[in-house]
Amino acid sequence: MSFASLGLSDALVRAVAATGYTTPTPVQTQAIPAVLEGRDLMVAAQTGTGKTAGFSLPILELLFPDGQRPSGYKRTARQVRALVLTPTRELAAQVHDNIRSYATELQMHSACIFGGVGANPQIKALAPGLDILVACPGRLLDLVGQRAVDLSAVEYFVLDEADRMLDMGFIHDVKKVIAKLPAKRQNLLFSATFSSEITQLANRLLHNPARIEVTPPNTTVERIEQRVFRVEAGHKRALIAHLITMGAWEQVLVFTRTKHGANRLAEYLSKHGLPAAAIHGNKSQSARTKALADFKSNGIRVLVATDIAARGLDIDQLPHVVNFELPNVAEDYVHRIGRTGRAGRSGEAVSLVSPDEEKLLKAIERLTRQRFEEGDLQGFVPPAQAELNSDRPERPRGANTPSRGRGQPRSNAAPRGQGRADKPRPGSKPRRPQQAMPGIAEPEDAVARERRLQAMGNRVVPETPAPKRNRPRREKPALLGS
Ligand code: AMP
């Protein structure tokens, strides 16, 4: 199957080839011909399936048949022909970038609008009229209110990540936007999960839609290896640093439940030689863009994000996703791990589960209809309580630590190995050497590891209770998106 055989013109096929895609993904194979036929679509597909190209390419084909703007077409001031609505700024920017890369040979006029940045450049971009507008609902409604944009001539309407729109409380804004659209239009709805609320919305929005289901809703992609580590809450940060180091993970996306928790973890990892940055709703747009750019270019190794901030992140070949805390809503787990194993690649998703999260884990296992295997702790030794209360890696081991309990080893530090396992990939920036830290072993050779495990009786020492201050607080969702 080729892109040309799906009915796309040479201009688009060449642009797609230049992007590096050789074969259409399953969602593209099904969606592209259906959109070209003029059908409404209801698509169950999560991020990573290639859904953006699945709607962008046929819309571009319809707007520019055979790569040309239809003769006699005149741009009308402030009017828009195709509207793509997304829940977050990052997703909007990502979708717009993708569309532009497919339209390199077309005389396309497009813009991307979202809140958190000045409105004037957006108003200017909208003024002459556009072929495609990618927007977050809040800012779009503001600009509609100011008559900077007129939605009465929209021919193609895409509602992307509809379930997330709902979760983030944008449903009323979405309905207001829909009310501004003309009655006659083609509608494409994408959602990773289909709750009864989404189905209701779909029933109102879509006319005789073609239904496409790429992975069954609420299941996770099979090629993603998923493992859990049962660990006390207070030991999680040391464990995550240990896993990153031992596994030589180069690019890791970590989810926390709270903004504060994201900041604290990023700070801890950075202090301990694993360059990290946090993104969440309290960060400015420029800080978030910079963190993402640094992450993509391997300038930082770990990106710590809240669920809301992570929506729409499109990072090629993201190999590792870590749930530092499990999400309160089981569906969010599906979204989170959809960040790895993208477009046919394999990935690894790791969840750190403290005793109070067992219920959440059960709910996720029920939803995804699988049981996750326990991960290999690779010699992780939990830090002592006193070390838990300190972020200072330079503190002498054993100083001021409480007396050892029965069965605990003399030192909580795992033996140091020689050299680093995480050799930089060709072309990536060299990394700073790591500092020693409580509970975190540097890579060691097999003989040293075997000797150490024998000395420990081949088991992990008992864990100390979690300090109270690590309890997460919930993030208010309304800050983001538009
Ligand atoms: P999406 O699900 O639209 O967020 O796309 C996920 C990732 O897959 C993006 O990085 C796309 O650039 C990439 N992608 C989309 N279509 C293809 C394709 N046919 N072949 C390879 N990669 C693709």
Automatic annotation (TrEMBL):
Keyword ATP-binding: yes
GO molecular function: ATP binding; ATP hydrolysis activity; nucleic acid binding; RNA helicase activity
One Pfam family here: Helicase_C
EC number assigned by the record: 3.6.4.13
Keyword Nucleotide-binding: yes
GO cellular component, one term: cytosol
Spans annotated as Disordered: 374-482
Catalytic activity: ATP + H2O = ADP + phosphate + H(+)
InterPro entries per record: DEAD/DEAH_box_helicase_dom, DEAD/DEAH_RhlB, DEAD_box_RNA_helicase, DEAD_helicase_RhlE, Helicase_ATP-bd, Helicase_C-like, P-loop_NTPase, RNA-helicase_DEAD-box_CS
Record's keyword terms, sorted: ATP-binding, Cytoplasm, Helicase, Hydrolase, Nucleotide-binding, Ribosome biogenesis
Domain Helicase ATP-binding: 32-212
Transmembrane feature ranges: none
Residue window of motif Q motif: 1-29
Record CDD domains: DEADc, SF2_C_DEAD
Domain (DEAD-box RNA helicase Q): residue spans on this chain: 1-29
HAMAP family reported in the protein's UniProt record: DEAD_helicase_RhlE (MF_00968)
Similarity section: Belongs to the DEAD box helicase family. RhlE subfamily.
Protein name per UniProt: ATP-dependent RNA helicase RhlE
Gene that specifies this protein: rhlE
